[in-house]
Amino acid sequence: MSNWWVLFLIPWAILLRPQPRIWFWLALFVCAIVSTSASAYSQYYILMMPFWALLSAIGIHSLSCKISERMAKPSLWLTGLMTLIVMLLLLRPDVPWMLCSNKRFASLAGTLYAEAQFVAGKVASKTSPNDFIYVAGSDPEIYCYAQRYSPTRFITTYPLMIPGPSALSYQTEAIHELGQHPPKLIVFVASGASWVRHENSPPKYLEFLNAFLGQNYKMTGGYVKTDDLNGYWLDHLTNEQFAHSSLVFFERKN
């Protein structure tokens, strides 16, 4: 609402000149809202955007036509002007993000990306481009920064851990692929906020991961957080340091 307030106003203009198919698009928009399950994660609202955009476009057209009736002039130029104004209002909050450098983007987004870049450098130094790595968590940017591949298509643990009818089959698939192609290095997201643990998910994946790491891997370091903004790397972690680590390395035993 604070950034895209115009999108909360424009679609209502469809009621000025209601068309038969408007109710179909409006129904799809409502279904998309329901499908988000009122989640706090903003990326899930991508489901709503196509229908919201369609309703906004029709709203702009309906509003310009209504105004043109009073002006007794064609609405084409007015529609274009209103579209331009709406687009500028939508882009305005994102201009600082669009124009900043990579480093500035990371600082605006928080410490997560800067931390991942540092850890990815460690990953690249300990592996070759032909080696598989696996991030046991939901930090796929590490693959990108390190230029390494995962042995499984599940580059985040969200689909494995979100409770649902597919979770167990996804876990089984990921377990099979990790067993078939054991990665040289596993980055374990030790943060308590990690989706590696979810109390309502099938326990199969986490049980496998604990056994897999214990039998085939050794802990070789981790990024220890001192506070929300700072941290440091240690090659040998005590239990206390592990508890304060965000990303921990496990390398495959020879």
Task: Put the structure in a nutshell.
By secondary structure, this protein is α+β, with helices and mostly antiparallel strands. It has helices at 22-35, 49-71, 76-91, 95-99, 102-109, 111-126, 141-146, 158-161, 167-180, 204-216, 239-243, and strands at 133-136, 185-189, 217-225, 231-234, 245-252.
Q: Which percent range fits the helix content?
A: 40-55%
Radius of gyration, taken over Cα atoms and rounded to an integer in Å: 24 Å
Structural class: alpha+beta
* Spatial separation of the terminal alpha carbons: 54 Å
**Total count of domains:** 2
Key words describing this protein structure:
254 residues, alpha+beta, 11 helices, 49% helix, elongated
Task: Write structural notes for this entry.
- Helix 1 (22-35) packs antiparallel against helix 2 (49-71), helix 5 (102-109) packs across helix 6 (111-126) and helix 9 packs parallel to helix 10.
- The chain has 2 domains: 5-99, no CATH class; 102-252, no CATH class.
- It contains 11 helices and 5 strands, in the order H-H-H-H-H-H-E-H-H-H-E-H-E-E-H-E.
- The protein is 49% helix and 12% strand.
- The longest helix is centred in the first third of the chain and has 23 residues, at 49-71.
- A 5-stranded mixed beta sheet has the order 1-2-5-3-4.
- The protein is elongated and about 80 Å long.
- It is an alpha+beta fold and 254 residues long.
- A hairpin with a 5-residue loop joins strand 3 (217-225) and strand 4 (231-234).
